[in-house]
Amino acid sequence: MNEDCIFCKIANGIIPTKFVYESANTVVFNDINPKAPMHMLVVPKKHYATLNDLDDKELMSELLQSVKEVTKKLNISDYKTLINTGKGAGQEVFHLHIHILADKKS
Ligand code: AMP
């Protein structure tokens, strides 16, 4: 847990947030500034600044599994996923997250 990280605070319950889905090591919540009718973020509970820092293959798998589970839960079959890695690629929050974007509202 990184004390200065907003997503650490959200994922670990320090900032109360409604989770759309939660697994053992990940949470999914709505993006505060949605760029599509449905815009969620899949976030590991443990802090990794970027995808480049993640070396836990089980967690990689669990993150993608959470994408599948939350879209299945919301009955969304068509969606985009995005991971911005590094400032040059547009990453603004340096806690690894997968964007899920869809035309359907949750
Ligand atoms: P990125 O550019 O990939 O780092 O994306 C960061 C995303 O986090 C943006 O889409 C923001 O709207 C979103 N975001 C920032 N702060 C919050 C927050 N407190 N709760 C939910 N989403 C957030």
Automatic annotation (TrEMBL):
Tell me which Pfam families the record gives.
HIT (PF01230)
Q: Which PROSITE patterns match?
A: HIT_1, HIT_2
Active site positions: H97 (tele-amp-histidine intermediate)
Under the GO molecular function aspect, what terms does this record hold?
catalytic activity
Q: Where is the HIT domain?
A: 6-106
Gene3D superfamilies recorded for this chain? HIT-like
**Motif (Histidine triad motif) on chain:** 95-99
Tell me the PANTHER family matching this sequence: HISTIDINE TRIAD HIT PROTEIN (PTHR23089)
Q: List the protein's name.
A: Histidine triad nucleotide-binding protein
Q: Which organism is it from?
A: Candidatus Galligastranaerophilus intestinavium
